[in-house]
Amino acid sequence: MVKSNQNLTQSSLVFATQEEVDKITDLKDKVFVFSGNFSQLKDTLKSLAISKGCIVKDSVSKKIDFLVCGTQNKKVVGEDGLSGKEEKVIEINSKGGNIKVLDEEQFMYLMNK
Predict the structure, then answer these.
(1) Domains of the chain in sequence order
(2) pLDDT of residue 70
(3) pTM of the predicted protein model
(4) Are 17 and 52 in contact (CB under 8 A)?
(5) DSSP secondary structure letters along 30-60
(6) N or C end of the chain: which has fewer CB within 10 A?
(7) What residue ranges of the chain have pLDDT lower than 50?
(8) What pLDDT, on a 0 to 100 scale, did the predictor assign at position 76?
C-alpha cells in the first residue's frame, strides 16, 4: 500500500499528501470512486462514504473529487499495475483536472476526522 505521508507517483498517478488530506474539511456531496482490492469489503467502504454524506460512483469522470486506490492485480490490469480508472484520472489531471488520489489508509483517516 502507498504510504499516506508521501507524494508518490506511479506512472504519473500522484497520491495526495497528508497535508492535502488534512485540509479537507467538508465531505458532503463529494464524489468518490474506488478501484482495486482493499483490506475491507469495497461495499463497506462505499457505505462508510455514503454515511458521511458523500456520493459514490462506479466510473471516473472529470466530475469526481476522489479516487480511492487499493492494490491492483497485475494479471487483471497489466504489467503497468494501473487500472482503467487510475489511467483515466491521470488523463483528466494531465488536462487540468483536480481529482485527489487516496490510498485506503488516507480514506479511512478522512472518514474518521
Answers:
(1) 31-111 (3.40.50.10190)
(2) 94
(3) 0.86
(4) no
(5) -EEEEESB-SS-HHHHHHHHHHTT-EEESS-
(6) C
(7) 1-10
(8) 87
